[in-house]
Design a protein that fits this description.
It contains ten helices and no strands. The chain is mainly α and 249 residues long. It has a domain of 142 residues: MetI-like fold. Helix 3 packs across helix 9 and helix 5 crosses helix 6. The chain is elongated and about 75 Å long. The two termini are 23 Å apart.
């Protein structure tokens, strides 16, 4: 029953889609059968796989850079309060600036290619990781701070055995939120400035007036994003249970 229940609403939407396609022109709303046929044809031709791999490559590079940069920034600004005061206003300004608003400038600087999409991903996914990591590092209770001080532990040991366990739940939340932001930002950037990728595939199909290919692209984006989020959730839960079992409940 737990498996069937989440499928009820998508099944109802599929039936509604099938019914609506009988009254609406296939030019505007092709039926599920036609969309499935188009999707299989795109898989056989290799076009869908090519665009999919392009998007996955960009998300891997962009998200990886964002994670590394956010962790480094959070650790440095947490350690040195003077730097935190210096950069707080600038980071707040950048956080409130939508990444897509910077896309025209990024195109001028970096051109239409992977660099622009990767830059948009980093801008979109940096702050959820950074803010949650900073919040997590600040959650170490005073008794544990006093214990660490009384044991005369090095900064590295304090970070590994006190700060990291306290920050882990917030870090996991930040990573999951950040990945969702990065996936949506990538597709939006590909719609504007790209020569490949799922977003570009949708835009190209729209210009060719192929609603079936547009729907194929939308479905692939949603399904792949859902699968990646589910995989990340499972991996993070497994990591918590192994390293911090008291936090995995």
């Amino acid at each position: 029953m737990r498996i069937v229940k989440p499928l009820l609403f998508p099944l109802a939407l599929l039936l509604l889609w099938q019914a609506a396609s009988g009254f609406i022109s296939p030019y505007l709303l092709p039926g599920p059968g036609r969309v499935l046929k188009t999707g299989l044809a795109m898989v056989e031709s290799g076009a869908l796989l090519s665009h999919l791999l392009a998007s996955l490559r960009r998300i891997a590079v962009g998200f990886g850079l964002s994670v590394a940069l956010a962790f480094f920034t959070a650790a440095v600004l947490f350690r040195w309060k003077a730097l935190d005061d210096l950069f707080r206003g600038s980071l707040s300004f950048l956080r409130m600036t939508p990444p897509l608003a910077l896309t025209p400038l990024l195109i001028l600087w970096l051109g239409i290619g992977d660099a622009t999409q990767i830059a948009v991903i980093v801008l979109a996914s940096f702050f959820p990781i950074y803010l949650n990591t900073r919040d997590g590092l600040s959650r170490l209770d005073a008794p544990f701070r006093e214990l660490a001080a009384s044991l005369r532990l090095s900064r590295l040991r304090i970070a590994l055995f006190f700060l990291l366990p306290a920050a882990t739940p917030s870090i996991i939340t930040g990573l999951r939120l950040s990945f969702g932001y990065s996936w949506r930002a990538l597709i939006a950037a590909e719609l504007i400035a790209a020569g490949s990728g799922l977003g570009y595939m949708i835009m190209d199909a729209e210009q060719m007036q192929r609603a079936d290919e547009v729907i194929v692209g939308i479905l692939v984006i949603g399904l792949l994003g859902w699968l990646l989020d589910a995989a990340f959730s499972s991996l993070s839960s497994a990591a918590l249970k192994r390293r911090f079992p008291e936090l995995a409940a």
